[in-house]
Specification:
Layout: E1 2-9, E2 18-21, E3 27-31, H1 38-50, E4 72-81, E5 84-94, E6 100-109, E7 132-135, H2 138-149, H3 153-159, E8 161-162, H4 164-172, H5 175-186, H6 189-218, H7 224-276, H8 287-321, H9 325-393, H10 425-483, H11 489-547, H12 561-608, H13 620-673, H14 675-700, E9 705-710, E10 713-718, E11 724-727, H15 733-754, E12 763-767, H16 775-790, E13 795-800, H17 803-807, E14 811-817, E15 823-829
Parallel strand pairs: 3-13, 3-14, 8-12, 12-13
Antiparallel strand pairs: 1-2, 1-4, 4-5, 5-6, 6-7, 9-10, 10-11, 14-15
Helix pairs in contact: 4-15, 6-13, 7-12, 7-13, 8-11, 9-10, 9-11, 11-12, 14-15, 15-16
Length: 830
């Protein structure tokens, strides 16, 4: 895992939005005074990935992420692992009741061409994803981070963020203490849990053995005797099938005989029912005479209609020759309209004369008003001339307002001793006369406007009356032209009276036609009723004869309905007596067939009774099916015995398997509880750790030192001193740092190898205080870190407040806090 960018806002001391860009920093230092927030940068990385920080102790105490005055903390970490880039985001909020919870947690894999510069300055939940979403809730984060980083939280805080002081103690610890540290760091207590799990598996397997034995004991009917009995029952059922098949021909013969007798009896019963239904309908007598009388009445009614229609036609011809009622009515209306228009024209002429007089008076009044207005306007112009003349005469008076006693005159420049009085009587009189003239002119103008409005109203009335007079005259002239040469009013009225008389005659003839037609409809209805009765009588006859047509009934006379019905009725009575004797013979044959069928079914029921199978239908198919079902039941019983025997064999195998599992688990638990296994495992782990640390130390010390262990004690081989071995306590401070760092790196790689996922160790972050080192040791430490960074296989980060060490690191992130306690980060590159 290699961090690329870290965004903070509200996380502990970083109250304001803060961004730390690691994208081009292969070797960097987090520097600043003690308590400035350097280690908080590493805490934020851990929190973004795992939701907790080593310094918090309890992993569930996420409220430590919030600054005391903040309601929300946001952290986003962009990192690279195994060539892919990811972004992890966590947001923590405090509600109004002071409760803190995770509001958002997510992990996304960024596209290969994603530009980190497009990020906002502060992390936040996003409405749209940046890439492929791997986790969207806090519950999904643990598995997603493990897949991306390859390390669980405990191994991450040992492999990437290294507690250096722990390994210095590990280097100088006694063997027993070192074993305890190795057990904790390498997680060797897992083997104790494996032993406990093995003991649990042993108990579970033994419990399964007991339960399976109980199931096997409860399984009955699985022995050889049960199988033999089932086989015998199956053979008996198969023999029964043969016995049933032997009786089925007799069953079929009895069934066919019964069906034949029943069919013949049904045919006789059907014939008897048809013969008994032959009964003449009531009311046949006189039906033919009734139809003949109805036909004669219908013919007489039709003749009466034709005579009435001839009379109506003659009356309508006379009406047509009498004249056009519509035209005559139009002429009569025209005469009346001419009289009305003549009277109206007289009224409009009177109104026209009145309107003309009013118009002439309004014209005269307007001329008078305009003359008065011209007169007042002339008076105003004269008054204005007087005012202008008086103003000119009194021009010197306009200068008096500027004179001040004792000051020079603006005209003669002599001192002013006395100021003459201002104002001229002539000018005041002229102005008063002008005001009076303007008032009179205004009144004259108002009077002129009023008379102008009156004249326009007179013009409107005159135009309206003139239009009405012209309209009435035009309409009257049109009527006169229309009535020219037309008959007079008396002639038109007498002609209309004659037409009305002929119309009444036509109406009387039409009423006679209607009454005659009504009589025709009544006669036709009575004829239809009589003919319908006759038709239904023949229909009933045909239905009755068709029902017994197979028995040879007599033929019908289509002109004599009564005689036809009487002949059919006599024949039906004779045939009823004959078919009654046939019915008695069919009943005897049906009873004989039923007795034979009962005997065969009784014998079949006796055969099938031991099987307990119910017969669905008492025919050959039903008995054959019942026998086959008996065989299937016997076979199923035999198969259940076989199945129980197979289940007993499986239970026996399970008992053996559970017993083997219990023995293996018991042996494993005993092995893991032995002290020799733990000592062997610790020895192997320590040898692997020393071998890895020795190679790293050799690289860091430029080939001078190697690390070995003997009887649990660490020794260094000094190649600059004849490759002699000496205790690690003899090393200087810088050399001790190199040895401790080598152990830390070797252990981190060993822990990554033990991880269940594929871990990629691409960075190492040392949170270690170097303030107690002397200058020579500090120089050795700085050189060691430079050599480690120069290897190029991982990013190296150091947390320190020592200026001398920080100055030798090319990229520094200076962390400081202001007066409010808010931390800020500034990047400094050498």
């Amino acid at each position: 895992m290699r961090p690329l960018r870290l965004d903070l806002h509200g996380f502990t001391v970083f109250r304001e939005p803060t961004t730390v860009d690691f994208s081009d920093a292969d070797f960097f230092a987090l520097v600043g005074p003690t308590g400035s927030g350097k280690s908080t940068i590493l805490d934020a990385m851990c929190f973004a990935l795992y939701g907790t920080v080593p310094r918090w102790g309890d992993r569930r105490r996420i409220e430590n992420a919030l600054a005391p005055s903040s309601a929300q903390a946001k952290v986003r970490l962009v990192f690279e692992a195994s060539g892919a880039r990811f972004v992890a985001t966590r947001v923590v909020r405090r509600d109004t009741k002071g409760r803190v919870s995770t509001a958002h947690a997510g992990l996304e894999q960024l596209p290969a061409d994603f530009d980190l510069r497009t990020f906002d300055d502060a992390p936040a939940e996003r409405g749209e994803s940046l890439g492929t979403v791997l986790a969207g809730t806090w519950s999904e984060m643990e598995d997603a981070i493990l897949d991306a980083v390859g390390l669980p939280y405990e191994q991450f805080t040992t492999c990437v963020v290294l507690p250096q002081g722990e390994f210095a103690r590990f280097l100088h610890a006694k063997p027993a203490q070192r074993q305890e540290i190795l057990v904790n760091l390498l997680g060797l207590h897992v083997y104790q849990r494996i032993g406990e799990r093995a003991g649990l598996r042993q108990r579970e397997a033994e419990a399964k053995v007991t339960a399976t034995r109980s199931l096997l004991a409860e399984l009955t009917g699985a022995d050889e005797a049960a199988l033999a009995a089932a086989e015998q029952a199956l053979a008996a059922a198969q023999t029964l099938v043969q016995d049933v098949e032997a009786l089925l021909p007799a069953l079929e013969e009895a069934r066919r005989a019964g069906e034949t007798a029943q069919a013949e009896l049904t045919a006789v019963e059907r014939d008897l029912a048809a013969l008994q239904s032959v009964r003449p309908p009531s009311g046949l007598a006189g039906l033919h005479s009734e139809v003949s009388a109805a036909r004669d009445a219908a013919a007489a009614a039709q003749a009466a209609v034709e005579a009435a229609e001839d009379q109506e036609e003659k009356a309508r011809a006379e009406l047509a020759g009498a004249g056009d009622r519509t035209e005559l009515t139009r002429l009569l209306d025209a005469h009346a309209e001419r009289t009305r228009l003549a009277a109206r024209l007289t009224e409009v002429a009177t109104a026209l004369a009145t309107a003309t007089a009013d118009h002439e008076q309004a014209t005269a009044r307007l001329a008078t008003a305009r003359a008065a207005m011209e007169k007042t306007a002339a008076a105003v112009r004269a008054a204005q001339d007087d005012v202008e003349a008086a103003t000119t005469a009194d021009r010197a008076a306009s200068l008096r307002v500027h004179l001040v006693e004792g000051k020079p005159c603006p005209v003669c420049e002599q001192p002013v001793t006395t100021i003459p009085p201002t104002g001229s009587p002539r000018l005041r009189a002229a102005r008063e006369k002008l005001a009076a003239a303007e008032k009179a002119a205004q009144a004259a103008a108002e009077a002129e406007r009023a008379e102008d409005r009156a004249l326009r109203e007179a013009d409107r009335r005159l135009a309206a009356v003139t239009a009405k007079h012209q309209e009435s005259a035009a309409r009257l002239a049109a009527l006169e032209s229309t009535l020219d040469g037309a008959p007079d009013v008396s002639t038109v009225e007498s002609t209309l009276a004659a037409i009305a008389e002929k119309e009444r005659a036509v109406a009387a003839c039409a009423e006679a036609v209607r009454a005659a037609r009504q009589a025709v409809r009544g006669a036709a209805s009575r004829l239809a009723t009589a003919e319908e009765r006759l038709r239904r009588a023949w229909q009933e006859y045909d239905r009755a004869r068709d029902a017994v047509a197979a028995l040879g009934p007599p033929s019908a006379d289509r002109e004599r309905i009564v005689e036809s019905w009487q002949a059919l009725d006599a024949w039906a009575r004779e045939r009823t007596a004959d078919r009654s004797r046939d019915r008695d013979a069919c009943l005897a044959a049906a009873e004989s067939a039923l007795a034979a069928l009962t005997d065969v079914t009784g014998r079949l029921d006796t055969l099938l009774a031991p099987t307990g199978v119910a017969v669905a239908t008492r025919d050959a198919a039903g008995y054959r099916q019942a026998a086959a079902l008996g065989v299937e039941r016997a076979r199923a019983a035999r198969d259940r015995v076989l199945e129980r025997r197979e289940r007993a064999a499986r239970l026996t195998e399970q008992i053996e398997a559970h017993e083997r599992e219990a023995r293996v688990a018991k042996a494993l638990a005993q092995y893991l509880r032995a002290n020799q296994f733990e000592r062997w495992l610790l020895t192997e782990a320590l040898d692997a750790l020393v071998a890895g640390a020795s190679g790293i130390l050799n690289d860091l010390s430029a080939g001078r030192y190697e690390l070995i262990q003997k009887n649990g004690e660490f020794l260094v081989i000094d190649h600059s001193d004849a490759s002699l071995a000496r205790g690690v306590r003899t090393l200087s401070g810088g050399e001790t740092f190199q040895a401790s760092l080598s152990l830390a790196l070797a252990l981190s790689e060993q822990l990554a190898g033990l991880s269940s996922a594929s871990a990629s160790l691409e960075s190492i972050l040392l949170d270690e205080g170097f303030g107690t080192l002397d200058p020579d040791t500090m120089d050795t430490v700085a050189a060691t870190l430079e050599n480690l960074a120069a290897r190029g296989d991982r990013m190296v980060g150091v947390v320190t407040h020592v200026a001398g060490l920080a100055e030798r690191i090319p990229v520094r992130f200076e962390v400081s806090r202001d007066a409010r306690g808010t931390a800020r980060v500034t990047r400094v590159s050498v």
